[in-house]
């Protein structure tokens, strides 16, 4: 009789219990399993709206200074053939004290749900463009005197000569040459 009373009491409590999410989304974490007791204040489920995602990255202060809210970006996602368009939505006003970098958020659309939360990605941000800029492969740059940069050029005598250059915008693949080459 006692056990039946506890059973009916438990059924009554369950009939009052409801799990509701304030957002539409996907369950991304379920720390408890059937039969386990939840403690007060602990999460039972984690629901995430994955219709748009954020890519968070840290940039050197000089690079972050070139960015503006609304700048366009491309995200290369492993397993996705084409880059995904993104937009700069936050540029932190303060440096990260541990790394002296600036946190930047890129927002990207995921209405089809093909992108997964937590995937490491490669981001390319268009911060500033230069019309008719002279570019060379970054691998062609050599260290020069006083911290400058040099390149090797073939002279009129068909031999290689070192020439000092001024470098502008630099990416992993290409470097803009401001002066020193024509």
Structural description of this entry:
The strands form three sheets. The protein has a five-stranded antiparallel beta sheet with strand order 3-6-5-4-7. A five-stranded antiparallel beta sheet has the order 8-12-11-10-9, with no helix packed on it. It is 11% helix and 38% strand. The chain is rod-shaped, with a radius of gyration of 27 Å. The chain is built from two helices and twelve strands, in the order H-E-E-E-H-E-E-E-E-E-E-E-E-E. The mean pLDDT is 89. A hairpin with a 3-residue loop joins strand 11 and strand 12. It is mainly beta and 182 residues long.
What keyword list fits this structure?
182 residues, mainly beta, five-stranded antiparallel β-sheet, 2 helices, 12 strands
Concise synopsis of the structure shown:
This protein has helices at about 1-15, 60-65, and strands at about 25-30, 45-50, 50-60, 70-75, 85-90, 100-110, 120-125, 135, 140-145, 150-155, 160-170, 175-180. With about 180 residues, the chain is mainly beta.
Q: Give the proportion of residues in helices.
A: 10-25%
Instruction: Spell out the helices and strands N to C.
Output: HEEEHEEEEEEEEE
Distance between the termini: 97 Å
Number of helices: 2
Strand line-up across the major sheet = 3-6-5-4-7
* Multimeric state: single chain
Output the radius of gyration: 27 Å
Strand content: 35-45%
């Amino acid at each position: 009789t006692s056990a039946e009373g506890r059973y009916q009491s438990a059924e009554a409590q369950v009939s009052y219990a409801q799990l509701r999410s304030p957002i539409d989304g996907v369950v991304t974490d379920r720390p408890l399993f059937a039969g386990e007791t939840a403690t007060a204040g602990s999460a039972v489920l984690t629901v995430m709206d994955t219709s748009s995602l954020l890519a968070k990255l840290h940039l050197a202060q000089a690079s972050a200074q070139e960015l503006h809210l609304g700048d366009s970006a491309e995200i290369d996602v492993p397993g996705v053939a084409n880059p995904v368009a993104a937009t700069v939505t936050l540029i932190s006003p303060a440096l990260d004290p541990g790394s002296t970098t600036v946190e930047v958020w890129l927002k990207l659309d995921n209405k089809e749900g093909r992108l997964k939360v937590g995937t490491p990605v490669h981001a390319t941000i268009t911060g500033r463009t230069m019309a008719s800029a002279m570019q060379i492969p970054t691998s062609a740059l050599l260290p020069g005197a006083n911290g400058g940069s040099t390149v090797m050029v073939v002279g009129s005598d068909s031999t290689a000569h070192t020439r000092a250059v001024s470098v502008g915008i630099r990416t992993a693949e290409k470097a803009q040459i401001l002066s020193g080459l024509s």
